[in-house]
Specification:
single chain; six-stranded mixed β-sheet; four-stranded mixed β-sheet
């Protein structure tokens, strides 16, 4: 499984979200389904999702030879409310004997979201985020705490560079279900963290360019 930061396909640009919004049936997303089917891997990407006349902060999930599923951020910050509406319901994903719960940025820092996911059977928590330095400082304390409390592997994917009116600081990371940090990227590099949950081994593979 591979997943990406919050609104990864469009960037975190609330004022542009309505013009960029689409849904899981958009044919421009077919390339993800093709790769999912070809490589037997689940893929999660972030984008604004149309919700009738409104817009949600969403993710579309692709599984091999299966219908696409979407998930929308359930808890919004005050500055997101002029542009987005809340999603309804927690998406749960199943893969290789694991139950995975996506979380999008702000809600992943709310203790009840992780608690609810754990109560629904999640053993892996997927935090798709776009965070500035001051929030990341809190996040790197919060994620290992919920990992320990709920016995969850926690994986955080953050972007680097400009996001709306702030700079995202990267530092994508993975923690095991004892809250131990397994790998963390720096604040400037793009790349991928690969986590093997069976061995609790994680490795960083930095991008060599686009």
């Amino acid at each position: 499984m591979v997943f990406f930061p919050e609104l990864s396909l469009t960037g975190c640009e609330p004022r542009l979200a309505k013009s960029l919004a689409t849904d899981k049936t958009d044919h421009r997303l077919d390339k993800f389904q093709q790769r999912t089917d070809a490589h037997n891997i689940i893929i999660g990407v972030g984008l604004p999702i149309s919700a009738e006349s409104k817009v949600q902060i969403g993710m579309v999930w692709f599984a091999p030879n299966a219908p696409r599923r979407d998930y929308a951020k359930q808890q919004l910050q005050d500055d997101e409310l002029p542009f987005f509406v809340r999603g309804n319901g927690q998406l749960m994903l199943n893969a290789a004997g694991h139950t995975l719960a996506p979380a999008i940025c702000f809600e992943s820092l709310q203790p009840k979201h992780a608690e609810d996911a754990a109560n629904m059977g999640a053993d892996i928590y997927l935090a798709s985020v776009a965070k500035p330095a001051r929030v990341m400082a809190k996040a790197v304390l919060h994620y290992p705490a919920i990992a320990r409390k709920h016995k969850l592997h926690v994986i955080m994917a953050d972007c680097v560079g400009p996001s709306d009116n702030f700079m995202s600081v990267g530092k994508s990371a993975a923690w095991n279900n004892r809250g131990e940090l397994l790998a963390q990227m720096d604040s400037e590099s793009e790349g991928i963290i690969i986590l093997d949950t069976a061995t609790d081994q994680a490795s960083i593979h930095e991008s060599l360019g686009t």
